[in-house]
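Think of the structure tokens as a kind of shorthand, similar to the way a musician reads notation: each symbol stands for something richer, in this case the local conformation of the backbone. In the example below we present two proteins back to back. Begin with the first one, reading the sequence and then the tokens, and try to describe in your own words what changes along the chain.
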Amino acid sequence: MTDHAAKMPITAPTEGDERAAAPGFVAAPTWRRWLALLVDALPLLTVWLLCAFAIGDASASGLPSTPWNPLDQLVDFINARPTTAALIVVMLAALGFAWPLVAHLVWGRTPGKRVLGLAVVDARGQRPSTRRLAGWCALRVLGMALLFGGVLWAIADPERRTLYDRLAGIYVIRPAAD
């Protein structure tokens, strides 16, 4: 993809818009952002689960099989192999950081944002810098780790921005035309 999304003009809020983002930006609806996050999470979670099962299966040799339910077996695995469990969690965090960062740097947005017609810009309406995007991705991972607190912030925010959007100076918008 070219820099089409980054060069696109940002529309001013129209009279029918319930809430507007920064002056001149039309904020992306929260439901579109969540759906884009779900679309982006599916391949990420697939890769993570495949790797997690491979790592877990390789290190689970020697664990006794138990008649308990899968949740109890997971707790037994974590107690028996805390380093392996930590590696699996760190791998999820690394994928959660790297996937959106690389997608935004290479294509200008993630596949989920592309499908749903969303763009990520800074306060000037430009494509965010690499440093700003990296900070945004790191804050996203932290927000997800804190029980989606950063995402839930968007429900009450008048500009429909998440906590990590605000902290990183990022706007997720609907461009004028796609």
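Once you have a description of the first chain, move to the second and do the same.
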Amino acid sequence: MLYLFYLIAKRYYSLEEKRSKVGTLTLLVILVIVIWLISAILIFTFLDDWNERGPFGDLFGAVNALFSGLAFAGLIYTIILQKRDLEMQRTEIKMNRAELKKSAAAQQKSEKALSEQVEQMKVISRLNALNTIINYYNLQISSPNTSEENLIKFKEKRKEAIKEIDVLIDRTSDEDLD
């Protein structure tokens, strides 16, 4: 019968690699129950008289106390392991919080840089548009078909565009100094 149990346990352990630790606990509980049943069968088989069974059972009182003490020690050990695990988890959480703060700071810097880049792109786009307008006015001014009235108007518009470029350049330079 023990050999049969050995074969079952061996097969179970080969499957155990695929299962969680709960399966090991189940196997241990089954093992204890089987040993208990075997001991009960042996006691009833070999000790016929109840007067012999009582003192025989009393012999195991010390073993009972030993196993109770071992169970209590196992419980204390489990509590200590859980305490260590909780301390490790707390440390990891603190480290994660520090990393999240660093990440948030980096993200804010990135957002600020992106915002500045957008503003610079707006200024560049405006400067390009003004440059195109000035080139258009220069073509109109240099054209021999332009009337005197339009020539004055185009020169005035070109001056306004050049002044706006100067304002944009001055403003950009001032922002860069800040």
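Compare your description with these statements about the second chain. The CA atoms of residues 78 and 143 lie 95 Å apart.
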